[in-house]
Specification:
Number of strands: 9
Largest sheet: 9 strands, antiparallel
Structural class: alpha+beta
């Protein structure tokens, strides 16, 4: 009967299998989200640090930049390959970093810097539509967007304003290289770089995850304490039952006992024997300490008796 009660109490305390699975799923999802937020945080920090020099983030020789207009939307009207990307797309291109050894041709897509009316640097991603060889043998280049509705005329009207290799920041497409376009991601990345985006997408979730983990730690500690208390209560109950059986049956199990009572009685005898052994060990240790103290006392007493002996000798004289 007591075994059935014990099993019933255990079933009440232990959560169901469905609840356990749900907790595991929630913990897994939270851990995955934490990893994602950490990766995003590291990515934002890396992009911010690497964009200080040129204004475009550069990682391992590749630029990560957001397309700011639809001037390349629709593809080349002249039949050149690649292109057809627009505002908000993310471009991964090869960083030039002043490298003048790369050969460019008509149809290549490059990034260059152009100042707007406010004097701020604007990063233009357009296609080379013409190149002219100078007297020194070096080429200069004319660019224009593929979307003729937005880019009606070339970016450089006069040959003297044509671009040179050193003005290119990155190259998206040449005969020997093709970059990567990820649709729609660039706008989200730009939003993450703002204070508002960083707060809502990175900082706020990190605070929420921290609070969640703190609550989970407190709940686990509380559950652990409750489990320990329950174990102590259960042990006390079992000891009381066994002691009552012992008083009833003496030092040996009775034939009138049930199997459950007999098992509890055996556990109690084993527990009682362990207590007696511990008491004997403590008693033995105590007697050893007393012997050591007794061995030290004569020397102390002898030292104290020397002045008395000296006084007796003087009185005799």
């Amino acid at each position: 009967m007591s075994e059935n009660v014990k099993n019933t109490e255990t079933q009440k305390k232990e959560p169901s299998k469905g609840v356990q699975i749900l907790k595991k799923v929630i913990n897994t999802v939270v851990n995955v989200l934490i990893v994602i937020v950490l990766i995003v945080s590291v990515l934002i920090a890396a992009l911010a640090l690497t964009s200080k020099a040129t204004g475009i983030s550069t990682i391992f020789g590749y630029t990560i930049q957001t397309i700011q207009s639809d001037s390349m939307k629709g593809g080349s009207p002249d039949g050149y390959p690649e292109g057809d990307f627009g505002k908000g797309d993310l471009m991964i291109a090869k960083a030039i970093d002043g490298n003048t050894d790369i050969e460019y041709d008509v149809g290549d897509i490059v990034t260059f810097i152009e100042q707007d009316t406010d004097g701020n640097n604007a990063y233009i991603v357009h296609r080379i539509i013409n190149k002219v060889e100078g007297k020194d043998g070096n080429y200069s280049y004319q660019t224009q967007g593929d979307n003729r509705e937005m880019s009606e005329v070339p970016d450089q009207r006069d040959v003297s304003n044509y671009l040179i290799k050193g003005q290119f920041v990155s190259v998206y497409y040449t005969a020997g290289y093709k970059g990567t376009i990820i649709k729609g991601v660039g706008g989200f990345l730009d939003y993450l770089r703002t204070q508002q985006g960083f707060f809502f997408v990175v900082l706020l979730p990190m605070i929420a995850f921290f609070l969640y983990e703190l609550v989970r730690v407190v709940m686990n500690a509380s559950s652990y304490r409750r489990a320990k208390d329950d174990e102590k209560k259960q042990a006390a109950v079992e000891a009381a039952v066994a002691e009552a059986l012992s008083e009833k049956a003496g030092n040996a199990p009775s034939d009138n006992m049930t199997d459950e009572e007999r098992e509890q009685f055996k556990q109690f005898l084993a527990f009682k024997k362990m207590q007696e052994q511990q008491a004997e060990e403590q008693k033995s240790e105590s007697s050893e300490d007393q012997s050591e103290k007794a061995a030290e006392e004569p020397s102390d007493n002898a030292a104290e008796d020397k002045p008395e002996e000296k006084e007796q000798e003087e009185s005799k004289e």
